[in-house]
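Hey, quick one: can you model this chain's 3D structure?
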Amino acid sequence: MNLNGTLCVMDKRSLEHLARRFREAEVRAEILRQELAAAIREADADGVPQKDVCEVTGYTRQQIRRIVKASADGDG
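Sure thing. Here's the predicted structure for all 76 residues.
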């Protein structure tokens, strides 16, 4: 069954198409992850309270500290 509940036949071409879309989504997600990390570092530099960053991103304080520290350590 398809996500919308209709029956579909999974042939090689359909599978290739879905796999390609998945890989493209992974690339987009990595780009967005890097953009979000940069925004978190900028918010930290601008003095935005860490609790606000956590609230907005859904990340834990430990994750936020790790992202900010990676920048300070040059790990980008």
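One thing worth noting: The chain has a mean pLDDT of 91.
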